[in-house]
C-alpha cells in the first residue's frame, strides 16, 4: 500500500506537509541589496559580468515548483506550509507529518538537520536541471510533480533509513551561536585592546556554560575537523572503537556515513589514471592500456562506497604527515563503529555537512556514534 493510500487511513494520512524551499540566488541578492529595484539589481549584475537571465530563470523555476506543489497539496486536501528560512521552518518540523525539500542536495541537507526523529519522512525534488541530485529527484517541468504524487499513491517507492552521526563534544565555546563556514571571517587591523576585551568576555561567558554538549544536529553526510586556515596543519589524537589512541598531523579528518561515502569522502580518495598506470608499471613492469586502467579505477572507487543505511562510519585522515617524525604504519582510512577525536588545534572548527560549525581547539574532544534511532526516513521513488 502506497504512502498516500496509507494516508487515507486517519492514523497515517499526512494532514500536515512542510515544504522547505531553497532561497534562489535572485531572492538572496534582493535581501542583500534591498535599496535597489529589480532593474537596478539586474543592471548591476550585468556590469559584474554575471548573466541575469540565468539567475532569473533559476528563480522562476523555483517559484513554479513551489506553486505547483502548493496546488497539488490543496487538491489533496492537505494542510501545508512552504518556507524558505531554516529558522522559521525549524518551528514547524514537529507539526509536519511529511517534509519535502525543494532544491538541490544543499537544501535536502539543511532540511534533514531539522528532523531529529526517525519517524518523520522526507523526500526532495529539484527543479534545477544539471545540479547535484544525490538526495533529490530532478524534475524538468511542473507535470513531473504530479507524477511524483502518483508514485506515492501507488506505492512505487522504497523507504531508506539513512544513517546519521551523533556528535558529543567537550570543551569551551560549545554553546556559542554556530555559524556557517562561508560566514567565517577574520577582521584585519583590529585594535588590540578591543580584541582582548572581546576575548575576555568570551572566556567569562564560556566559563559559565557546560563543557559537554550533545549536538542537536545529526550529520547525514560527514563531520570534518581542521584548522580554518587551510595552509595550517592540525594535530589530533584519534581513537577508533576500543583500539589504542594515536596522534596524527594532517590537514584534517573527515568522518562520514554511507551517504557521505559518495560525497566529500569519495572526492578525497579519488585517484587519477596516471597514478594507477605508474603504480602498475612499477609493480608489474607492464603498462596498462586505457581500458584496463578504467577498470581498475572503477573497482577502486566503487570499493570506497558503503550503504547509506550501514550503522558504521568511515574516517579519512586528509593529507596525513608521514615524515620520519611520525608513525608510518597508521592507516589513513578505515571503517569503524565509534570514533573519538581530541584536538590540538589553534583556530580549528568542527563542521557538520559542510555548513554548521563550532570551535574545535586545543583540549576539545568530539565523539561520534551511529544508532538506528538517529536515522533519517528518506522516501526514494522508483
UniProtKB/TrEMBL annotation:
Record keywords, A-Z: Kinase, NAD, NADP, Transferase
GO molecular function, one term: NAD+ kinase activity
Listed GO CC annotations: mitochondrion
BP-aspect Gene Ontology terms: NAD+ metabolic process; NADP+ biosynthetic process
Enzyme class, broadest EC rank: transferase
EC number: 2.7.1.23
Record family assignment: Belongs to the NAD kinase family.
Protein name: NAD(+) kinase
Amino acid at each position: 500500500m502506497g504512502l498516500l493510500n496509507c494516508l487515507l487511513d486517519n492514523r497515517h494520512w499526512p494532514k500536515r506537509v512542510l515544504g522547505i524551499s531553497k532561497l534562489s540566488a535572485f531572492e538572496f541578492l534582493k535581501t542583500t541589496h534591498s535599496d535597489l529595484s529589480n532593474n537596478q539589481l539586474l543592471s548591476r549584475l550585468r556590469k559584474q559580468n554575471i548573466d541575469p537571465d540565468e539567475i532569473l530563470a533559476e528563480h522562476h523555476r523555483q517559484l513554479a515548483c513551489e506553486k505547483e506543489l502548493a496546488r497539488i497539496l490543496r487538491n489533496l486536501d492537505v494542510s501545508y506550509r512552504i518556507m524558505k528560512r531554516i529558522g522559521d521552518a525549524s518551528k514547524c518540523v514537529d507539526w509536519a507529518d511529511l517534509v519535502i525539500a525543494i532544491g538541490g542536495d544543499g537544501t535536502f541537507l539543511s532540511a534533514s538537520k531539522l528532523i531529529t526523529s526517525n519517524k518523520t519522512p522526507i523526500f526532495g525534488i529539484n527543479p534545477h536541471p544539471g545540479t547535484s541530485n544525490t538526495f533529490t529527484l530532478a524534475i524538468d517541468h511542473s507535470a513531473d510533480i504530479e507524477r511524483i504524487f502518483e508514485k506515492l499513491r501507488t506505492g512505487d517507492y522504497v523507504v531508506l533509513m539513512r544513517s546519521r552521526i551523533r556528535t558529543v563534544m567537550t570543551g569551551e565555546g560549545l554553546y556559542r551561536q554556530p555559524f556557517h563556514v562561508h560566514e567565517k571571517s577574520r577582521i584585519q587591523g583590529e585594535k588590540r585592546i578591543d580584541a582582548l576585551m572581546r576575548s575576555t568576555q568570551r572566556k567569562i561567558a564560556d566559563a559559565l556554560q557546560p563543557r559537554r554538549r550533545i549536538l542537536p544536529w545529526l550529520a547525514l553526510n560527514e563531520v570534518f575537523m581542521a584548522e580554518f586556515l587551510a595552509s595550517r596543519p592540525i594535530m589530533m589524537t584519534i581513537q577508533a572503537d576500543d583500539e589504542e589512541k594515536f596522534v596524527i598531523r594532517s590537514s584534517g579528518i573527515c568522518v562520514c556515513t554511507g551517504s557521505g561515502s559518495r560525497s566529500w569522502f569519495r572526492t578525497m580518495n579519488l585517484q587519477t589514471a596516471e597514478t594507477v598506470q605508474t603504480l602498475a608499471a612499477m609493480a608489474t613492469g607492464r603498462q596498462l592500456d586505457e581500458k584496463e586502467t578504467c577498470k581498475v579505477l572503477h573497482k577502486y572507487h566503487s570499493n570506497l562506497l558503503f550503504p547509506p543505511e550501514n550503522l558504521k562510519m568511515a574516517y579519512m585522515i586528509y593529507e596525513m604527515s608521514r615524515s620520519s617524525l611520525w608513525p608510518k604504519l597508521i592507516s589513513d582510512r578505515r571503517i569503524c563503529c565509534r570514533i573519538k577525536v581530541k584536538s590540538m588545534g589553534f583556530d580549528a572548527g568542527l563542521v557538520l555537512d559542510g555548513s554548521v560549525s563550532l570551535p574545535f581547539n586545543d583540549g576539545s574532544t568530539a565523539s561520534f556514534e551511529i544508532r538506528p534511532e538517529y536515522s533519517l526516513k528518506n522516501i526514494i521513488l522508483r
